[in-house]
Amino acid sequence: MTTDASSEAAVAQRQCGGCTACCKTHEIRELAKPPGQWCPHCRPGRGCAIYESRPEECRTFGCLWLAGYGPDRIRPDRSRVVLGTVTFTVRGKPLELVTMNELSPGALAQPAGQEIVQQLLGNGAVLLQWFLQYSPPRAKFIIPPARQRDATIAELDAAMHGRQSA
């Protein structure tokens, strides 16, 4: 997802602050932390106890809110949804998907979550929703009608699991 020039000033001012949502929603392989569980180094609402020496996965992740997407009400600790991006190769071409990780099960069904989904689909984003309450986590792809020629669910699933689709 790209941001427009009008949001560049807002991006410069955005910081995680007390938001620690990705510390729960994302897997951190270096720490053997599975998705959907709090990182043992996270201090919810305050930040990371090992911030200066945090793993590379943590250093390089930036949610879409930090990148300038959406108003303050969709900040992950407020909307309970962490948005990110991942790129898969489908039919030999890169295809960017917006990942949606719920901090709390059912967050995407709430008004803020529904607003996020509808806005993303309206912008033509292909969505990947993770259900972190399951072990292992389950995923659901949401492809807006205008993008259904770009990829099928089977192709996206195969790309996500590193195999060729039939």
3D structure, described in words:
- There is one protein chain.
- This protein is an alpha+beta fold and 166 residues long.
- The protein has one domain.
- Helix content is 23%, strand content 21%.
- It contains six helices and six strands, in the order ααββααββαββα.
- Strands 3-4-5-6 form a four-stranded mixed β-sheet, sandwiched between helices. Strands 1-2 form a two-stranded antiparallel sheet.
- A hairpin with a 6-residue loop joins strand 5 (126-131) and strand 6 (138-142).
- The radius of gyration is 16 Å and the shape is globular.
- The model has no long low-confidence stretch (mean pLDDT 88).
Can you describe this structure in just a few lines?
By secondary structure, the protein is of the alpha+beta class.
Number of separate helices: 6
Sheet with most strands: strand arrangement: 3-4-5-6
**Biggest sheet details:** 4 strands, mixed
**Overall 3D form:** globular
Percent helix, as a range, is 10-25%
Integer average pLDDT: 88
> What class do helices, strands and sheet pairing give?
alpha+beta
Specify Rg, calculated over alpha carbons: 16 Å
Low-confidence stretches: none
Question: What order do the helices and strands follow?
Answer: HHEEHHEEHEEH
Strands, total number: 6
Strand fraction? 15-25%
Taking the alpha carbons of the first and last residues, their distance comes to 29 Å
Architecture blueprint of SSEs:
Blueprint: H1 8-13, H2 22-25, E1 42-43, E2 47-48, H3 56-60, H4 76-79, E3 81-90, E4 93-102, H5 111-122, E5 126-131, E6 138-142, H6 153-160
Parallel strand pairs: 4-5
Antiparallel strand pairs: 1-2, 3-4, 5-6
